[in-house]
Specification:
By secondary structure, the protein is an alpha/beta fold. The protein is built from twelve helices and eleven strands. Strands 1-2-8-7-6-5-4-3-9-10-11 form an eleven-stranded mixed beta sheet.
Length: 387
């Protein structure tokens, strides 16, 4: 399978594929590539998946709090091989505004969760640290026994650096979790790793691209080569086809900024019909850590708004054990507990989470973190409301 040709002209009239769904704040929107992922996975996985998604939609409406988070993200390492300007971790790692690191020499699985500091390559987080594989298995055991349905490997790291990632996916699936996903930059996605993830039961592979041209990619995702990542994706699709598997479904994403907005129509033309679904995402500015100049210059969809439902359905476990009530980076400032001291169930049912949910329902004072999260998508200097 060869990479798709350059389809679409960046100067063409803006057009989007059919909308599948958006998140509760309309910051990220999913569009149809080849299929509706929920429909495909529902057909493949049957009643357990459909029941999980029904509970997800109830929680999304803020009318239902499941007894345990439906989805937990695990950030096993504080490592990444890219230095992306829209990621506050680049600034936390000491990057200047215009710094562009050379491509890291890390290989797939080069980092061992038992001792990532012993590995070569750049550490995104100045504190380092890791969430041991044995701890992740323990958390998966707890979740599987208490109603967790989905697991994700994402956050502020590159999951493909983790040795044993396919084993963790397989472990969670064997325990009964029906949805397993990985968010990656795709630079380390070898054919062998693709095969291992397919065999492990991964349901969704989500690759952040953010560009149509190598030049723009080098500005959006310093440390990587677009053509290499595209080749990795096409090799993954070939491996999936060879194994006659429909999963993992492939999502490619595009974060709209001033650096790449002219390439969005061409990006859609390139990947629609190749990827199973596409995600078009809105840029959010993190005060002091990312750049206001990256706000796009023209609107691409409606402004963010609505109800934040993340604390009603999910948690994120940081590499040092902190439990965050959402997958947004703003949540770093609002840890609810730590898995090395407190179980997930206790945090989920605790006072802090309950008060947070009530504030999001409008029954209490919204936290400063939540207020900053709502405002970071607004370019207040130029009154730009682009997405």
């Amino acid at each position: 399978m060869r990479p798709p040709d350059n389809a679409g002209n960046p100067d063409d009239a803006f057009r989007l594929p059919p909308l599948i769904q958006s998140d509760s704040l309309t910051v990220s929107r999913l569009y149809k590539g080849k299929a509706d992922p929920q429909a495909v996975l529902g057909g493949l996985l049957g009643k357990p998946f459909l029941d999980y998604r029904a509970r997800w939609e109830r929680a999304r409406s803020q009318t239902f709090v499941p007894p345990f988070p439906l989805h937990v993200d695990y950030e096993a390492l504080g490592l990444c091989n890219y230095r992306c300007p829209m990621c506050p971790m680049s600034a936390m790692a000491g990057e200047s505004d215009d710094a562009r690191n050379p491509k890291a020499s890390l290989a797939p699985g080069a980092a061992d969760a038992a001792d990532p500091s012993a590995q070569s390559g750049p550490a995104v987080l100045p504190t380092g640290g890791s969430l041991p594989l044995s701890k992740i298995r323990e958390l998966l055991d707890e979740g599987a026994a208490k109603g967790q349905a989905a697991m994700g490997f994402g956050g502020l790291w590159e999951p493909l650096l983790l040795s044993g990632l396919p084993d963790l996916v397989a472990y969670g699936r064997e325990k009964g979790l029906v949805d397993a996903m990985v968010n990656t930059n795709g630079s380390l996605l070898t054919s062998a790793l693709s095969r291992d993830l397919i065999e492990a039961g991964l349901t969704r592979l989500m690759v952040s691209l953010d560009a149509l041209s190598p030049k723009t990619y080098s500005r959006m995702r310093p440390g990587g080569e677009l053509r290499q990542v595209e080749g990795n994706i096409m090799a993954f699709l070939s491996e999936r086809e060879r194994k006659k598997s429909q999963t993992p479904l492939l999502r490619v994403s595009f974060l709209v900024t001033s650096l790449n907005e002219s390439e969005l129509p061409g990006f859609i033309g390139r990947w629609e019909g190749v990827a199973d679904f596409l995600s078009i995402q809105r840029y959010g500015h993190y005060e002091g850590r990312t750049h206001k100049a990256m706000f796009p210059k023209k609107p691409h969809g409606e402004a963010p708004g609505g109800l934040c439902a993340q604390p009603f359905k999910r948690l994120l476990v940081r590499h040092q054990g902190d439990l965050l009530p959402c997958c947004d980076l703003s949540g770093m400032a609002m840890p609810m507990g730590n898995v090395f001291r407190t179980g997930i169930q206790e945090v989920w049912e605790g006072t802090a989470m309950s008060r947070l949910r009530e504030s999001l329902r409008g029954k209490g004072t919204l936290t400063s973190v939540c207020r900053s999260c709502q405002s970071k998508y607004q370019d207040v200097e130029s009154d730009n409301d682009a997405t």
